[in-house]
Fold this sequence. Notes:
Layout: H1 3-40, H2 44-72, H3 74-93, H4 98-126, H5 129-161, H6 164-184, H7 199-218, H8 225-245, H9 259-275, H10 278-289, H11 294-301, H12 303-318, H13 324-342, H14 351-377, H15 385-414, H16 425-451
Helix pairs in contact: 1-2, 1-4, 1-5, 1-6, 1-10, 2-3, 2-4, 2-7, 2-15, 3-4, 3-6, 4-15, 5-11, 5-12, 5-14, 7-8, 7-15, 9-13, 9-14, 9-15, 9-16, 10-11, 10-16, 12-14, 13-14, 13-16, 15-16
Amino acid sequence: MNTNALIKRYTLIVVSMASFLTPFMGSAVNLAIPSIGQQFGSSAFLLSWVASSYLLASAAFLVPFGRLADIVGRKKVFILGISIFTISSILCGLAWSIKSLIFFRILQGTGGAMIFGTGMAILTSVFPPQERGKVLGINVATVYTGLSLGPVLGGLMNHNLGWQSIFFLTAIIGIVATVFTLFKLKGEWAGAKGESFDLKGAVLYSAGLITFMYGISAVATVSLAKYLLMLGVVILVVFVYYELKAKTPVLNLSLFKNSIFAFSNLAAFIHYSATSGLGFLLSLYLQLIAGFDSQVAGLILLSQPIMMAVLSPFAGSLSDRIEPRILASSGMGLTAIGLFVFSFISQTTPIWLVIATLAIMGIGFALFSSPNTNAVMSSVEKKFYGIASSTLGTMRLTGQAISMTVVTLIITLIVGNVELTPANAEELVNAMKITFILFTILSIIGIFCSLARGNVQRDKGVS
């Protein structure tokens, strides 16, 4: 095997290992949410922040770290990200209160931002356009493998060893990934080497996003939240104004003049906004309402990500030959159907219907994610790979945070800011129905955004 082929192989292995970690952590923790709430006697609002704090930190720092990686080198930021993620995983397992756990989850999300902001850019730097769809499909399959194993191992470990064991297992995997990265990931990629880093823009971006997102999620429980929400909007408006004039902006807004880049990112934002609260809601439903333990609940939730893992490489390869907008829009259509079915959920919904609907949504996810990623990365010049990767990751993570924010807000309004128990079953089901109706409407809007992106023109001549 020649040197170039070895570089490609090891790069794919290293990035895929890191890409496995973050979704595994997220899906595994969802199964532990009821146990964490029980141990700490946490309210619904604080409990939701065990998931939301990680997503918010990842989203807030993703673009700044993506830009920094383009300047100083993607490998440097990538390794630092895995290291921080690993250390914070250990700290999460040692948390002594719900607030300390949330704090360590923020650190974990910061490390995750460094991984998200560089992994896909490194892959796109190493592999040529004609191989990109296939490789990105494999990487997405690794992500979904993490999602698949998360519920199974998370439920099993939570039931037998306690929720802390999930974080310790993640730390062990992180240590292996860090060592492998140090010795096997050869090369350093810096597409914007020598350019200055826009520190003011980075601070405005992160501060605006954090303030805005916290304001939305806390508006029903914290009296000052509406003012924080408005402040967040103001800071983000100032950020856009500042970035349009900056010589080397942290987020190159001119990229959004490209309709493929703009609508592909918008489609990703809408897709994740409409779907990411699903695992959290169904974990509560299966354990608090249907009465399953976390092991069985994990096996039931497996039906969605296993379809994603199996079909993502196929969808990625297909997007090298068929326009991504067709595949991605079809995938979002299947997602909308699944969410519509879930809007009729009740305390007596048969489990086979839950499993079948999750499987349909898994197919939809696979058809959407790889082609949509391929469209984004194929629409920009090489020097923008890092920021393109980070922007797409930000859309995904911000969408996930928005999704959890909607879930938190509706549960708080319908159930109240109380500890979630089987006694709240009726109110919880009503909150879920309202949430799934909103998510269905959002997915339908997303289909039209996905179709509006236009056709991708690639260097290899495939239209």
